[in-house]
Amino acid sequence: MATDRFQSAVFDEYLEKAGRHAAHYLRRLPDRHVGAKATREELIAALRAPLPEHGDEGGEVIDLIAGHVDRGAVACNSPRYFGFVVGGATPVALAADWLVSTWDQNAGIYAISPLVSVLEEVAAQWLLDLFDLPRDAGVGFVTGCQMANFTCLAAARHAVLRRAGWDVEADGLIGAPRIHVVASAESHITIDVALRYLGLGTRSVLRVESDGQGRMRADRLRELLATLDGPTIVCAQAGNVNTGAFDPLREIGEATRAHGAWLHVDGAFGLWARASAAHRALADGIDLADSWATDAHKWLNVPYDSGVAMVRDAEAHRTAMTSTAAYLVQTRGAERDAVDWVPEFSRRARGVPVYATLRALGSDGIQDLIARSCARATQMAEALAGEDGVRILNDVVLNQVLVRFDDDDDVTRAVIDGVQREGTCWLGGTVWQGRGAMRISVSNWATTEDDAARSVTAILKVFRGLRGR
Ligand SMILES: *Cc1c(COP(=O)(O)O)cnc(C)c1O
């Protein structure tokens, strides 16, 4: 029988315990097997039990959970984790995030948390400065780029229909003027999902052909726009999830402006190129867009979950998102109510680790983080390309590398599986323009030159092992 359930005296004991588990995890992180070792069956056997009637002792519950992280979790914040596009968490971001949980603020409105509201207001301004976007844009701190795309496209839906004399917030889409949605053939799946949530569907999306690197073809976009009349939203991308390539944003921006269409840019990780002098040119013209979605849990390396929606027309953004109710104490002054800018109502103070990270790294530190990640990606691509039978499929312009082995899907798959089992690093696969490939994404603040070199050695060891058979 647990006696501690409602005693605040145990906070110290539990937090100390959690602190020890956390420190142990972080100490082992740079050297542990990157993949998970436990099977689902093993984890179920260890963790499934009838719901306790009286409850277990809380400290034991914490020990139980933490006891399975070594075998049960993939170390996706390891400096040698290169799967998907996944960042880690810098020390200051993690510490700030602990405070967020400790304070347990409902960051929906100013009235509940003046401190969080102001921290997010300042962080929003810093982000617009860093990305050099319109300083009066609306900014919302959401759970990730999926919801950032949703938020931006909700603002877009509002604005293009308002121009057509339709109030979508009041009247919905039934009977509304038709909206043309244009996206590249290579747009991220979360754009489609956002369009589904918004009642726009995916079947009618007009897909613009992309080139060999996955960049939208601006000439094809211009041809398409010339055939369209009425409310139009164009979705472009800064940073293809496979190649890291950027759509030609200046050309796209000029074409959409000339057409009077709304331009949205998905820059989940690519928008951060704006923070690096050496990579800025990739995103040239991005400021011509109307809305921008990005992630903070990827390249800024704050803990999950954290994304950012930014909209040039702040009024369209607010109108699409705001909620009001008689019991809500919303401000009418300068104070920022987060409910005006995000789909959530009650919410975590997820802008706080963003504030802490931006302040602690500074624009120099962020530039360094971006440039270093890109340098490690280039290092790995060059080292791998030196091996007979290995080909890099993309131009490595950012932090993404596509690798193919023996020009063969099965061999490539086998190398990926072998590397995941070997454990020095973790990376996944994809299909790029009909061919199987290994994906390398360098997005972690802690990845060193040595991590990149050790990972290349492990990859080549697996590949040579397969060839030797
Ligand atoms: C990761 C990613 C997304 C989705 O972001 P989440 O943070 O997972 O919601 C959208 N677009 C691109 C290009 C991405 O890389």
UniProtKB/TrEMBL annotation:
Keywords, sorted A to Z: Aminotransferase, Decarboxylase, Lyase, Pyridoxal phosphate, Transferase
Pfam families: Pyridoxal_deC
Keyword Cell wall biogenesis/degradation carried by entry: no
Cofactors named for this entry: pyridoxal 5'-phosphate
GO molecular function, one term: transaminase activity
Domain of life of the source: Bacteria
Signal peptide bounds: none
Gene3D superfamilies documented for this protein: Aspartate Aminotransferase, domain 1, Type I PLP-dependent aspartate aminotransferase-like (Major domain)
Protein family (similarity comment): Belongs to the group II decarboxylase family.
Full protein name: Aminotransferase class V-fold PLP-dependent enzyme
Organism of provenance: Lysobacter panacisoli
Lineage, uppermost ranks: Bacteria, Pseudomonadati, Pseudomonadota, Gammaproteobacteria, Lysobacterales
